[in-house]
Amino acid sequence: MNKFNLELKSLTTEHLSDVLELDRACFGGLWTLEGYQRELDSPNSVLLGLFSGSEGSELLAMGCFWSILEEAHITILAVHPQYHHQGLGQALLYFLLKTAHESGLERATLEVRASNLAAISLYQKFDFKTAGTRRGYYQDNQEDALVLWLGGLQYPQFPQTLARWFAMVSDRLQK
After folding, report:
1. For domain 6-174, which architecture applies?
2. Is position 123 annotated as part of the catalytic site?
3. Does the global pTM surpass 0.85?
4. pLDDT score of 54 more than 80
5. Reading across the β-sheet that carries 71-79, which strands appear in turn?
6. Which residues of 92-117 are buried (b: 16+ CB within 10 A; e: fewer)?
7. Which one of 3, 49, 93, 138 is at 20 to 30 Å from 23 when CA atoms are compared?
8. Going by DSSP bridges, is the β-strand pair 145-150/107-113 parallel, antiparallel, or unpaired?
9. Residues forming beta bridges with residue 133, ordered by sequence position
10. What Å distances lie between residue 24 and 12, 128, 169, CA to CA?
């Protein structure tokens, strides 16, 4: 499917050091070891990793969502800076949304920095719409967050949407 020979895995305690390393590379240490352990221990949290399928199996990207009632609240989407602009964010977002659909969730939501145009563009490719703004949401610089929303995960036509996204992701990873 791709030049990376990617492997999708549910993250476990054995991956914690790799998760922390990726968090530091992407966010400068957003979450602590204890925070990630809580995510792993929570029955309402899904934490996925994209690994290189080569020897050493490096964690290239990770994503997390919380199941809250019928909603997948995406809390983390991180791609190692060394692998930006290669389609891994698309692949990971696809798998998060596919997992949410398979879990019976009806919609997905997230917050994104208003200045993060690359992430906003990614989410728009997957039909996310802006639902609102959280003023001063980010504590480090008081930046606003856009609240993005995607409904219809349980609509009868959603499997066709997943197939369209899979083709888009596969094509992107081939390039």
Report:
1. 3-Layer(aba) Sandwich (3.40)
2. yes
3. yes
4. no
5. 6-10, 45-52, 59-68, 71-79, 107-113, 145-150, 129-134
6. bbbbbbbbbbeeebbbbbbbbebeee
7. 3
8. antiparallel
9. 146
10. 18, 27, 26
User: Burial letters for 123-158: b for 16+ Cβ neighbours within 10 Å, e otherwise?
Assistant: beebbbeeeeeeeebeeeeeeebbbbbbbebeeeeb
**HEC string for 5-22:** CEEEEECCHHHHHHHHHH
Active-site hit among 36, 39, 71, 111: 111
Which residue shows structure tokens 């994209």?
50
Are the CB atoms for 121 and 86 separated by under 8 Å? no
- Tens digit of pLDDT for each residue in 77-117? 999 999 999 999 999 999 999 999 999 999 999 999 999 99
Catalytic one among 123, 137, 138, 143? 123
Whether the Cβ atoms of residue 86 and residue 75 lie closer than 8 Å to each other: no
Distance of CA 174 to the CA centre of its chain: 20
